[in-house]
Task: inverse folding
């Protein structure tokens, strides 16, 4: 007999509370678009900010609200971009892979001007006499970019930042971290770059750094009528619409080895680091 | 005028080691064969160049006119020909444009304006224009154009002019010698500034570790309505906000200017420069600089023209007996470390200082033990230790909440920190970061 | 200029050091501060050795050594530079020794050293990051782990350098009014090394305050609060509760107030915070001493207030110079 | 369970005798005993080790900890009230005490649902920061623990009455909140510390919670 009472009493309590919750659920209803969670699942989830949003959840919201396209996510592989686009039923646009390039080859043995003492971080060192390197535009070598890179693609070697192209995903966190604005996003396909960013005259550069680009224009002559190289005042840059190939380095025989192949540079093949 | 000076909270007492050069009279620096005058010598817009290579100039000729209201003209320190317009390493380490003048030896004056004989009756607006034309800047170290401070907007009522003779930086004795040897110039300069602001009197604040200067100023100020106030020694009393509080008891609100509470502060050297401009009709082309430091053979005070390379200044002081650890422009507390001898003096170079090797203990900073010494000594009453922790973890929004923007970078906290932490550098970075709007969350 | 004067040599720019201002530093560094605090501890140590004989010296030595060795072992294991030269390990070792009684077996001291240095400090990243006072973490850990050993006290015997003393009760343990005040002042009472001669501790405390190594607000608020609360209770019921003087001069109060609570790393930085910290310690010590089941409340009180320190620091952020309240807006 | 309540009342003696010797407000004294007991002496998290998972999960930042404390106080107080009423007027007269745990779980679960819905509407920010924790948090052992302790308390004691139980629920929630706020400010200090990588995050938090619990042991026997 009392087991019947038990069932009834628990049943009553359950229904009463159920009704109360039902009413409250109606009063406090808030709607959520479930497509956002789905897109978020398909994103890599590195929260690197490369897409310009504050992390993958934010980016997913942006993509669903058509404020951004899936291809904007630098970390996504080609298949991910296609998968997301199909899920949302929009076209998967093509996007060229960009990598970071530190346009400086002046490590400590090469350009050290005086001893530095203080916070070992580029953003702080630049406030003290523009850092301790001879060149006002050179890499300070305290690794703010290496620290800012969520994928560990930048290695500090003898006070110089060196980008490992294969690890770099193109999220551009390092570009903002460098106080000397040395880091530029270049197409991954380009192999040969000028590792100098100083607009000074050749002689002034030569005094402070042995591997600076002294605008001798040998590389421009060596590339014949193909305009591989761009001349910008006293500095030569690779023309990234029509990037030079690796063999231009031997052809030009750059006197200060400012013109380098990035994979070789990453391996430290250009002396100076010995 | 309050009778008793107030003591502001915080502050430190480094040994002033002014004895090295305090008793040395001001010497006139001999004429050099060339001067490299740095173009941008003031806070605000850089001046616009008027001369080109090969032009003949006399002493005082206009080299560049002011590039806007908050900017000052630049005058030639000597007569000669413009050799080159190129770059020279600036005090902040970055090479800056400069005008190189090859001296012709005559050193012949050709001032762009005439002396004003009776400044007591001249219209204040004309006097202020003269201060602007002479290129007078704040010589305490900030190099803020003086005429801008002298033209407050109408809604700001100014009722107090203070001449800053505190010179609380250790080692420096330039202002001390200036007040001692040409006290009259400072007092009359002060009266001219008071007249420009429409005031009857002004106060000269001098720390009482310079008793002879205080006496000399009191004697010179006898028949002028200038009150000399001696202040207890307390670094950084020379900072604008602290000096105003010490003399008037008023606190400049955070983020506001002294003129918002009716005060204008001018350095005593700027007052002397105003005297030079109005009474002698000469532009501001030189200043008194202390060349001092233990490694120096014969430290002293010299009147250098703008554009004198540091190497020449050190030669005048007899060179060095031992290789110094640091070469500074300014005092040890707020001075800027240099790494090249070709930097040339400017209108705000109050000192050229060599720090010996043994005076510099190699700073390996240790973790903060929260001893609170920096909290006690901060004159702006903010919390250096907590802000330092915030900056170390890239939490600049938290640093801003802790009022890091109120920091005047006087260095008292780093000075008193037993762990040798580079607090000053971290705050400078935080302010740059916040000003650049990069609220990077850690 | 003709160069008849002797050769003037100029500084070599490449040797110049570039750093941010200021370029001068005040004299005290961490090890100067730490060794001054160790110096302030000496009167207390000497008194302890006088009253408890060589046993006290043994305890002090083992504790200090075990602290230093524990720290160095950790630094080696974590490949960090050795840090014993900054004196904080030595100071913690001596303080730990003062917190143990003379008869404490050697392994208690060693375990205390390891607990203090590894659990109390190094796990948090070394000097400056630990939220709790390492010595108290060790003392409370041992008290809870080995209640028997930690609460047997030795009988003080002036001048008798025998290694093993005889056990005796602490003034708090005895009935009210039994121990003479001047005995407590001199130190002729039972208790651990740091709890005996109040005079030596007061001298040590005075040195600390005079050399500005601690904030004087903490000991003043701490002892003051204990004095007031125990005094009030003493008035209410003299037989059940000791007189405030007994409370102040006995037990770990003076040692705690001058050396434990004022540990810079674990106490608030601002002076207003120091008042709150001292008052809190005093309140909890009295609560535990009068009504708690543990005879000695100082260690628990300070540990609790250490946990409260981050909140106190957050609460006592002072107004900057020239602060203008947004609402009123006047200077 | 009975032993716990028994020892609670016995240990009241020292403070009780002190108040009775003053001979005033004996009712008030019993509430005082419950409050100090629940907040300091038998603190739910640091002495009874109940509700440790939300204690660790939510204490990353002080503001989420405050939000969470608010939610727990609301839920525990209401749960104690409703459960003791249900227990007194429904289960005891119908002799269904064996259903206690089941009924209490249903009551708490529905209360939690209530809190979640209201929070989502009232302060989306707090809901955002607490996120998925909210249901996990409020249906934890602390809430159930308080309710069961109330039900099992000695019949004569104040705690068995409905208002006594509510006060006990409220005070134990206050104890939980005190421990949580204390611990979250400690953790914020910890994530600025250079903790060795092996101990980063939860490991060092557990160690710190352990030391905090040791500090709280000092209060044992206070009441």
Result:
């Amino acid at each position: 007999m009392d087991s019947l009472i038990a069932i009834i009493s628990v049943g009553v309590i359950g229904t009463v509370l159920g009704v109360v919750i039902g009413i409250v659920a109606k009063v406090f209803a808030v709607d959520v678009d479930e497509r956002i969670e789905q897109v978020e699942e398909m994103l890599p989830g590195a929260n690197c900010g490369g897409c310009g949003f504050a992390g993958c959840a934010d980016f997913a919201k942006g993509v669903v609200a058509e404020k951004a396209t899936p291809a904007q996510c630098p970390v996504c592989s080609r298949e991910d971009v296609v998968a997301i686009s199909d899920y949302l039923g929009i076209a998967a646009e093509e996007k060229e892979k960009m990598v970071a390039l530190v346009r400086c080859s002046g490590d400590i043995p090469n350009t050290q001007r005086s001893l530095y003492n203080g916070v070992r971080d580029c953003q702080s060192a630049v406030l003290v006499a523009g850092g301790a390197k001879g060149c006002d535009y050179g890499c300070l070598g305290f690794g703010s970019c290496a620290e800012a890179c969520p994928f560990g693609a930048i290695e500090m070697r003898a006070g110089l930042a060196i980008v490992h192209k294969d690890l770099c995903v193109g999220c551009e966190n390092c570009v903002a971290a460098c106080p000397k604005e040395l880091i530029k996003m270049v197409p991954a396909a380009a192999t040969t770059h000028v590792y100098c960013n100083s607009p000074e005259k050749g002689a002034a550069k030569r005094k402070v750094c042995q591997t600076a680009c002294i605008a001798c224009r040998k590389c421009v002559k060596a590339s014949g009528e193909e305009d591989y190289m761009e001349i910008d005042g006293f500095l030569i840059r690779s023309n990234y619409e029509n990037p030079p190939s690796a063999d231009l380095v031997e052809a030009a025989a750059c006197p200060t080895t400012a013109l380098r192949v990035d994979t070789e540079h990453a391996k430290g093949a250009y002396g100076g680091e010995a | 005028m309050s009778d008793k000076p107030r003591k502001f909270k915080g502050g430190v007492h480094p040994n002033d080691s002014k004895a090295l050069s305090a008793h040395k009279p001001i010497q006139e620096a001999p004429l050099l064969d060339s001067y490299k005058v740095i173009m941008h010598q003031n806070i605000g817009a850089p001046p616009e160049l008027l001369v080109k290579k090969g032009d003949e100039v006399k002493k005082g000729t206009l080299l560049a006119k002011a590039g806007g209201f908050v900017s000052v003209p630049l005058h030639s320190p000597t007569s000669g020909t413009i050799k080159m317009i190129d770059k020279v390493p600036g005090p902040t380490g970055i090479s800056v444009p400069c005008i190189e003048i090859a001296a012709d030896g005559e050193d012949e004056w050709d001032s762009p304006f005439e002396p004003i004989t009776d400044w007591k009756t001249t219209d204040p607006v004309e006097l202020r224009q003269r201060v602007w034309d002479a290129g007078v800047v704040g010589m305490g170290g900030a190099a803020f154009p003086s005429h801008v401070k002298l033209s407050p907007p109408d809604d700001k009522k100014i009722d107090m002019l203070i001449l800053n003779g505190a010179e609380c930086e250790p080692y420096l004795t330039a202002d001390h010698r200036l007040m001692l040897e040409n006290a009259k110039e400072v007092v009359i300069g002060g009266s001219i500034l008071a007249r420009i602001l429409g005031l009857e009197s002004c106060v000269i604040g001098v720390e009482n570790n310079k008793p002879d200067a205080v006496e000399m100023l009191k004697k010179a100020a006898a028949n002028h309505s200038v009150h000399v106030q001696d202040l207890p020694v307390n670094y950084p009393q020379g900072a604008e906000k602290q000096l105003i509080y010490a003399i008037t008891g008023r606190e400049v609100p955070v983020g506001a200017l002294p003129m918002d509470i009716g005060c204008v502060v001018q350095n005593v050297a700027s007052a002397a420069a105003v005297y030079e401009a109005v009474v002698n009709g000469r532009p501001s082309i030189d200043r008194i600089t202390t060349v001092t430091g233990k490694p120096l053979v014969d430290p002293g005070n010299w009147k250098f023209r703008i554009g004198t390379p540091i190497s020449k200044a050190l030669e005048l002081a007899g060179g060095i007996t031992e290789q110094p650890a640091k070469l500074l422009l300014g005092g040890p507390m707020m001075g800027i470390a240099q790494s090249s001898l070709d930097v040339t003096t400017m209108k705000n170079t109050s000192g050229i200082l060599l720090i010996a090797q043994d005076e510099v203990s190699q700073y390996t900073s240790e973790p903060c033990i929260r001893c609170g010494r920096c909290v006690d000594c901060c004159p702006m009453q903010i919390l250096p230790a907590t802000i330092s922790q915030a900056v170390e973890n890239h939490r600049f929004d938290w640093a801003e909440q802790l009022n890091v923007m109120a920091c005047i970078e006087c260095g008292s906290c780093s000075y008193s920190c037993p762990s040798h932490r580079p607090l000053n550098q971290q705050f400078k970075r935080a302010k740059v970061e916040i000003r650049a709007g990069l609220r990077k969350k850690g | 200029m003709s160069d008849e004067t002797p050769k003037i040599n100029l500084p070599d720019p490449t040797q110049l050091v570039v750093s941010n201002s200021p370029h001068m530093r005040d004299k005290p560094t961490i090890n100067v501060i730490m060794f001054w605090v160790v110096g302030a501890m000496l009167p207390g140590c000497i008194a302890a050795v006088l009253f408890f004989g060589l046993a006290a010296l043994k305890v002090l030595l083992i504790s200090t050594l075990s602290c230093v060795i524990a720290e160095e072992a950790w630094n080696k294991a974590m490949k960090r530079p050795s840090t014993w030269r900054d004196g904080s390990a030595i100071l913690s070792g001596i303080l730990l020794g003062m917190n143990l009684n003379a008869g404490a077996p050697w392994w208690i001291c060693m375990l205390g050293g390891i607990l203090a240095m590894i659990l109390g400090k190094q796990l948090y990243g070394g000097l400056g990051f630990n939220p709790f006072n390492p010595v108290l973490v060790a003392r409370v850990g041992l008290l809870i782990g080995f209640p028997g050993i930690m609460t047997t006290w030795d009988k003080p015997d002036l001048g008798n350098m025998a290694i093993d003393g005889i056990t005796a009760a602490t003034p708090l343990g005895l009935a009210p009014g039994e121990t003479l005040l001047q005995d407590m002042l001199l130190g002729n009472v039972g208790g651990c090394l740091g709890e005996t001669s109040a005079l030596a501790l007061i001298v040590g405390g005075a040195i600390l305050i005079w050399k500005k190594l601690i904030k004087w607000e903490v000991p003043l608020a701490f002892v003051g609060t204990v004095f007031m609360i125990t005094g009030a209770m003493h008035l209410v019921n003299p037989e059940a509760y000791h007189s405030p003087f007994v409370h102040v001069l006995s037990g770990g109060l003076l040692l705690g107030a001058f050396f434990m609570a004022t540990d810079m790393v674990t106490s608030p930085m601002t002076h207003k915070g120091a008042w709150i910290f001292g008052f809190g310690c005093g309140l909890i010590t009295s609560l535990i001493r009068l009504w708690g089941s543990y005879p000695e409340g100082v260690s628990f009180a300070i540990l609790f207030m250490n946990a409260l320190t981050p909140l106190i620091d957050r609460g006592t952020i002072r107004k900057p110079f020239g602060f203008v309240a947004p609402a009123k807006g006047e200077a | 369970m009975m032993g716990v309540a028994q020892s609670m009342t016995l240990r009241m003696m020292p403070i009780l005798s002190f108040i009775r010797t003053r001979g005033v407000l004996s009712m008030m004294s019993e509430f005082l005993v419950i409050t100090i007991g629940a907040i300091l002496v038998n603190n739910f998290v640091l002495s009874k080790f109940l509700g440790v998972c939300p204690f660790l999960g939510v204490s990353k930042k002080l503001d989420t900890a405050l939000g969470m404390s608010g939610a727990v106080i609301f839920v525990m107080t209401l749960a104690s009230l409703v459960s003791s009423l249900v227990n007194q007027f429904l289960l005891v007269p119908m002799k269904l005490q064996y259903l206690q745990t089941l009924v209490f779980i249903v009551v708490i679960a529905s209360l939690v649902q209530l809190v979640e819905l209201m929070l989502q509407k009232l302060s989306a920010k707090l809901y955002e920061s607490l996120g998925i924790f909210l249901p996990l948090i409020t249906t934890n052992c602390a809430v159930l623990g308080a309710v069961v302790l109330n039900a099992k308390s000695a019949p004569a004691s104040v705690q068995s009455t409905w208002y006594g139980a509510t006060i006990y629920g409220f005070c134990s929630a206050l104890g939980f909140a005190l421990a949580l706020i204390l611990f979250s400010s400690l953790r914020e200090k910890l994530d600025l510390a250079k903790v060795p990588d092996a101990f980063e995050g939860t490991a060092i938090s557990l160690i710190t919670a352990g030391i905090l619990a040791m500090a709280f042991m000092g209060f044992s026997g206070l009441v």
About this structure: The interface with chain A takes residues 86, 90, 94-96, 99, 102-103, 106-107, 110, 113-114, 117-118, 120-121, 124 of chain D (CB under 8 Å). The CA atoms of residues 54 and 136 of chain D lie 8 Å apart. Residues 65-203 of chain D form one domain. Residues 1-5, 7-12 of chain D have pLDDT under 50 and may be disordered.
